[in-house]
What does this fold into?
Amino acid sequence: MQQTELRGYLPALRRWWPTLLASTIMASLVGVALSMALPPRYEARAQLLVGPVNASQDAQNAAGNLARTYAELVLSETFLSGAVEQLGLTDTTEKLREDRVQVSGSTQTRFVVILAQQNDPVRAADLANFLADQLVVAANKGGEDTLGGEVTIIDRAEPPTETSGPPLTILVLAAGLAGAIGAVLLAVASEYFGDRVRDGEELAYLAGGALLGTVDLDPRSPKREQKRRIILRHVASAILLTGEDQRRTALLAPLEGEDGPELATLLTAAVTEFGRSVTLVGDGSRFDRSILASIGPRVRLADTGANPMLDPAVARATVDRAGQGSDVVLVCPPALGQSPAALIWAGATDTTIVAAPLTGQTRASVRYATEAIRAASGSIGGIVALKPARSRRRGQVSKEAARPLSSTTSGRS
It folds into this structure.
């Protein structure tokens, strides 16, 4: 069960890892840009003591309770408005209270700590010291009557040398992590709500068969052409390894589109490379006979006409007649999306090669089609994914592309 689930996750991971990587990098760069664009913030710290250093326990308890009161007093409108006026601050008192000034008072240690933040280190220290001085004046205003509640500045604020807040590395990592999480959520949503088949591995996973390869019907380069020929030989090998007697019969079942005849022509050429003769069964009007003839003398076409055969007995008899004098019979009916004839032919052949284009194929259609083929024949020899041609008309294949690999190789040498 876990292995099956892993087979479903790995193709999705391979599809989305570029997006995941790009999102992480882009988010990290945005984090760097924002951290550099935002003005720096400096934090200065002033520390005060409520009450005398040495006092009775009752005096210490009273002073500790006053520490909390003094902390709230520093954040009062009177203190903050005085700081704005005296220091010429551009921040409002509400802005100072919410974001620029933090004050804490401890009932245990009797310390009052004032933290002031500004975009300039000197102004941050001035703000913290001004509030500390104001608190000393207010607390000690009563003279001897303030015994036990007097405030002493222990540490005056000094201009900080470094900015406050998390370092740049933490910001970049946090932004990158946020970008990665966003990409993962996008991938999960796309995979969960989307119904399109995206690559050959997902196609094979949905069909429950082995992926024989992805055939590019318009390779556009000698390197891709060579790769296509190797994949076609692999598919031909899968056909030749089926069946119990000397003759092999196979059904090429396209799920959608008009690329079946082209793939059948290429696959026929690949089978002949193994020295086997091939009879291609299908509607003769869908094939270019001159191209079939150019493959070699081991290929012939059994024309079934345009009308699909829906009688299983007739289909089996047609395959038997086509196989007389041939090593391999390759049946190429219309796509399953156009005609149910492929299901009838499936019962008359040894194995079925399912071919599906990667453009516009839905997951539901793949599951339905492969389940129907299994019900008709019980054997799927493999899955072939198709990259349709882009520039030329579908269904066409050049004589050079259909020529066996051995002949092209010798010709070039």
Notes: Residues 200-412 form a domain with the Rossmann fold fold (CATH 3.40.50.300). The chain has three domains: 2-38+166-193, 42-155, 200-412. The mean pLDDT is 79.
